């Protein structure tokens, strides 16, 4: 009988996997054990030995990371190596052993509990997930301290094509397992901002997290079906289910191969209208995927990862080195750099512990608001972007604009920075375009005035939908209300496009809506001619563009917009599909 388990799915370009379970059970919680004072030195030596072995293990894993692996993945290992020398963990554990005459395993567990409790009490969701780092590092040390065979078992096992089921996975585990050919991960713990989630996306391994008691209910060796799109794990699937998912895997492979023929084909509609298709980048290493899928440039480079998973702030030179890496990798096609959009669901360390917590961070100090309040955060990035513009075509984009005064402040700061750089003899492109994101309803409603001040606009639908409909898109309780086709959202999008057209200002879309082929015909009919999306979506959207008659779509969309309140979302898509099929 088929059993279904549900969690949080983390999907890359391969959302489905089928493989035998490899259950990695790790019950490493030690029992309290007092020792004689004469044995304290022995326990301290045991702790030092376990720390040395754990560091050696991590260094070995790091040395095996392929050169093609994104740089930030190795940085996870580096962070854990640093934690193994941190006094809050190591010295405090040694003090517990000495003062309380307890064994090293129990002392390490007590200090782990103390640190985890501190993180658990933090209001910030991102900071709470940093407890994962403490868990991962302590687990690595406990493996060697207690003589557990887990690491050796993993190293010796045949893992190719297996689905690893674990309570959680450290970055070192994830990298090693990817290199061993693992098909998917299932974990009992982990959240959307955890390192496990970040790594799963970067490594393109289908993952379902938060499957409670997975290591108890899923049996070693049984066949599992992983659907990371829906966050579903199926065990003991019957022949019909297996046949369906195997067919999906084969169809997906065939579909990817068929789309490859479009890489070098122009992005032009049936009636000869060119449509510019750009890529969204999370990391510099994503440039390879963008180029491989025929992107005409980068419409959105999110710079937040430079600030996250670290204690200090990146300086101007680190920013510059990162941007130049991307510019050179793009080899002459344009790059749009969004200034940092921290806050809300992307908090960070760096401005000190006295920064206030926000009850509703999505409506608080984030993005350009944070930059204007904290120039020390903003200026190194701004100067680096300007310096990088001397090396290739770069556009600067301002996130979360909500008023004209914000734009005027930013433009004044940019003008002042240019003057300072001229005095210092630093080269930059004086004509570098400056644009802004339309993510807030207020910005959409004053899009005409924004278009007259800026060189381009980009519609960020992820936040525009969230703010228009008052829906937290990360909250499962209201996620069913998240609707990009809501009449209010479509009217704001159309208003922005028309306002930009009136002032002859370029306008694009860089939210998830742009990369969803279901919406391609609608967006073209609304008047968009520039779309930016995840690299994996480029070819499918291009296929839709090449099959559209834009003149016919524009005529149909005008009729739809006139009766928008009377048309359901599905009816809207069906009508546009009929137009596309007719052409």
Characterization of this structure:
The protein has 24 helices and 16 strands. With 583 residues, it is an alpha/beta fold. Helix 1 packs antiparallel against helix 2 and helix 18 packs parallel to helix 20. The chain is globular and about 85 Å long.
Describe what is shown at a glance.
48% of the residues lie in helices and 13% in strands. The protein has helices at 40-63, 71-83, 90-100, 104-120, 125-128, 131-145, 150-156, 171-179, 195-203, 214-217, 239-259, 287-292, 316-330, 367-373, 375-388, 404-424, 441-445, 447-453, 461-469, 487-502, 520-526, 538-546, 550-562, 569-582; strands spanning 3-6, 8-10, 16-24, 163-166, 184-187, 207-209, 223-227, 232-235, 276-281, 298-302, 335-338, 394-398, 434-438, 456-459, 506-509, 530-533.
Q: Briefly, what CATH class of the largest domain?
A: Alpha Beta
CATH superfamily of the largest domain: Phosphoenolpyruvate-binding domains
The major sheet is characterized as: 8 strands, mixed
The tally of beta strands, per DSSP, is 16
**How big is the Rg?**
26 Å
Q: Indicate the CATH architecture of the largest domain.
A: Alpha-Beta Barrel
Going by helix content, strand content and strand pairing, the class is: alpha/beta
Name the average pLDDT: 85
- Fill in the CATH topology of the largest domain: TIM Barrel
Tally of helical segments: 24
Number of domains as seen in the coordinates: 3
User: How much helical structure, as a percent, in the residues?
Assistant: 40-55%
Percentage of residues in DSSP E strands: 5-15%
Query: What order do the strands of the largest sheet run in, or round the barrel if closed?
Result: 1-8-7-3-4-5-6-2
List unreliable stretches of 5+ residues: 148-152, 352-357
How would you sum up the global shape? globular
